[in-house]
Amino acid sequence: MATPGISGRGFVRTLKTLRRSTVLQRLHENANSALNVAVSKECDIFPNTDSLTRRLHSSPTSFEPHCCHYYHSCHHHRRHYNQYHIPNKYQRTDSICPSAKPNPWCAVSNQRLLSTTTEHLRDTKTSSLVETDPYKIVASEMKDLAPDICKVLEVDIPNMQHMTQYYFGLGKAFRPMVCLLMAKVCNSHLNMGDTVFESQRNVAMVAEMLHTASLVHDDVIDAADERRGLESLNKKYGQRQSILVGNYILSKATMLLAQIGNPKIISLLSTVVEDIISGEFMQLGSKEDENERFQHYLKKTYKKTASLIANTCKAVAVMSNVEDDLVDAAYEYGRNLGMSFQLVDDVLDFVASKQAMGKPTDADLKLGLANAPVLFAAMEYKELQPMIMRRFAEEGDVEYARAMVEKTDGVRQTKMLAARHSEEAIKKLAEFSPCPARDALARVCRILLGREK
Amino acid sequence: MLKDKDFLTSACQTRGYGILGLGGKNSLSKAVSDAEKIVGYPTSFLSLRCLLSDEMSNVALHMRKLVGTKHPLLKTARGMVFDGNHNLQMKGLFVMLISKAAGPSPQDDLAHEEMVSGVYPNQRSLAEIMEIIHTSYLIHKGVVNLDSVQPEHGPVADMEFGNKMAVLSGDYLLASACRGLAKLGNPKVVEEVASCIADMMTAEFTNFTDPDGNEMIPQTCKGFSDWLKQTYFSFGSLLAKSCQSAMRLAGHSDYLKNMAFAFGENVSYAEQLAKDIKSFTSYDELSGLSLTSAPVLLYRERVPAQEFENLEKLWQKGPSNYHEIVSLVSKSGAISSCKELLAQYRDKAISSLDCFSDSEAKSALVNMVTAVSNVSSVSQGDVCVQTLLAQA
User: Fold this and answer.
1) For residue B53, what pLDDT band results from cuts at 50, 70 and 90?
2) Which member of A20, A112, A374, B323 has the greatest number of CB atoms within 10 A?
3) Is B269 within the bounds of a domain?
4) How far is it, in rounded angstroms, from Cα B236 to Cα B195?
5) B211 - beta bridge partners?
């Protein structure tokens, strides 16, 4: 992997040495690699910790030099300053370190920009923040994501290449977006600026690839005809090659992951692969007992949906080298977001189809799956239990279950559960220092709750 | 009747009944059981862990519904239990034997006391992972295109259910391979082995197979070089890269890694050539005749295009014409040049072991290579059945 990763590790090492000294205890919150060496040399010059901390806090408009290549575009930075509220501590008061070279992009022009735009933003802060699309914050990293994935999947058999690249660039790319935002949150928490490491971006690519590979296999299992607005791969090219293409995408994702060169990250993402499959298996069965059944459902939902989001969030946090409890916070954010995502999906299976097509489609029920609204309804109406166990196989089961869900408040209870996970996710974000990406992640939770398709 | 014979054949070819065999394949059985003693014990994924897992028992339960259908998954599953050729565990044995032949790590930081019968635990897991990957490939290859299901295959619903089971069980195996790879803790090895999976998938998209997985020879075929490429993608890559990775795990030199790779690659060619030749020379294995086998491709290089078209026509008419195809190909001399090639690849494989000092592991490797390259015409199937019948 390219230089960013390596220099990143070098930086991390420096950071660890620094952490040993108690005087510099709080330094890690604000570490800026351009300053690292200099700071460690000059720690005697600062009379006390407070002054050091204050001076460090007043740091960065200067940016981490070893961030991804997007950093080098001027407009990228201006956009950042024009659009978002800059918290006080990001304002530059003076040079932190006399020996550090001024950043050519930020030193002069941004200083001017800051003084004017920050004032402006502070006035209109609330409205502008709420309305900003989370995708915009990682737009430059997202822009070439699909083409880059396609490049990874290149193979010199045209038909095969067409099949492997079929779905990329079409979906919402929700998972890589969350992953990239989380990377920014972690990096900016360590004052590395509004950046994403190349390796973190690769994790985002892996996330999308794993997700797509699992979709390809899912569609064969569920005999789905449509995906991302296209005829599904299995419908168009048959089941056999679809499965093989899914495996190919998985193996290329694994290779990309291995190239990052970090065993811990590999192990995190291999858990995801395992979880997705084991979630698929859990979906085959249900539990006799009511309580166990709901637990079973929640576990299945975690494994099939939340694990990927949770573990990729964790992976980018590990890579930016934030403290352990923040790594956990990133994981918990992803887990709760994933759970909420799936619960809302379950609700939409009952609601959205009705609005969009004029009649319900009940995709889950027809596949024999008891989703959350049905499970809530079954708590009130015990006669649903045998239907769940026989996977709504008999005539009239689907309609009956649907009627029961409408009769009870299964949908509302599911929504409430989703909202609770969503709140929990937002709560976890409080552990990170504020930045535009953090606000965006909170917004993602709220948008998800209100989504209609 | 045929079914019974199949069963007997497979029963007496499983390891437990190794005492029975004489003839050709017996030397292989002996080579394998000797080799297993040398590395302590064979890989164990099929024996217990896999069958005891929740997921697999789930599949096994559902699999009962498949009995009586014609889904290829059943055949693959039977092959896993009664693998007449020891193919599956043999590949793992190659990896463990070459690990042992290469010896302990030249670096001191790897604890030598960790070794069991001269093989590091992670090399053992690698051997197992490789078998798991190969098995999942066999299973996924058997997924059926539902649009191509013919009436004689039975109801489409059965096939669809079989597909589900095949996808899930193959995926489960792949996922456990992923976990095993991650546990090895060596990114380079993860990358190498993952690239094998990509290679094997690529093999299914070349012009050698149509989308339904049937063999065909494309107009653009370059002859034997395409056969080599195809064999490398579908079998060679996995064995070669696994052998190489086994060296990497023990921290051996690049030279040893290259030699291990060459060994795995050449063994795969030799093994596949032997298999292809046998389908032409042994009456028993005539049903395994393949249009993309090496003798056919060499035949194609030797005769005018029109003669080859005749052969393709014969092929399309079905198994009743197999004998004619065999005699056509034999007459052209393609089979004897296949045998020459086989000897070359076998010798290449053996000579790539020169870099290792002599040991029982090394001679076991040589024995196994010799055994898999054996194309003697006495087939064990015949002998076994005869022996069993004589005993009865």
Assistant:
1) low
2) A374
3) yes
4) 12
5) none
Q: Is residue B20 part of a domain?
A: no
Across the interface, which of B58, B145, B175 has its CB nearest the CB of A285? B58
- B118 in a structural domain: yes
CATH of A139-450, one of 3.40.50.720, 2.40.440.10, 3.40.50.300, 1.10.600.10: 1.10.600.10
- SS3 helix, strand, coil % of chain A, rounded to 5? 75, 0, 25
CATH of the domain at B368: 1.10.600.10
Summarised one tens digit per residue, pLDDT across range A213-258 is 999 999 999 888 888 888 889 999 999 999 999 999 999 999 999 9
pLDDT band at B354 (very low <50, low <70, confident <90, very high): very high
* In B39-146, alpha helices (H): 49-52, 54-63, 72-81, 87-102, 121-141
Angle, helices A307-320 vs A198-222, to 10°: value is: 170
B105 — pLDDT class (breaks 50, 70, 90): confident
Within chain A, all domains assigned CATH 1.10.600.10 are found at 139-450
> Residue A99 pLDDT > 50, yes or no?
no
Which pLDDT belongs to residue A51?
34
Looking at residue B271, its amino acid is E
Q: Which three-class secondary structure state does DSSP give residue B275?
A: helix
pLDDT at A389: 86
Domain that holds residue B191: 26-386
pLDDT value at A307 more than 80: yes
Indicate if the pLDDT at residue A452 is higher than 50: yes
**What's the Rg (C-alpha) of chain A?**
24
Cβ distance B206 to A157 less than 8 Å, yes or no, reads yes
Give one word for B89, left, alpha or beta, with left for phi > 0 and alpha for psi -120 to 50: alpha
* Residue A256 contacts residue A262 (beta carbons within 8 Å): no
Residues near B350 by Cβ (< 8 Å), separated by ≥ 6? Answer: B366, B369, B370
Question: Which residues of chain A have a CB within 8 Å of the CB of B140?
Answer: 243-244, 247
Q: Does B29 touch chain A (CB under 8 A)?
A: no
Q: Is the pLDDT of residue B194 over 90?
A: yes
CA distances for B277 relative to A341, A373, B273, B293, B339, angstroms = 56, 61, 6, 8, 8
Could you give the number of structural domains in chain B?
1
B197 contact A CB<8A: yes
Chains A & B: contacts with CB separation below 8 Å? 140
The Cα A247–Cα A230 span in angstroms is: 20
Question: Of A258 and B22, which is predicted with more confidence?
Answer: A258
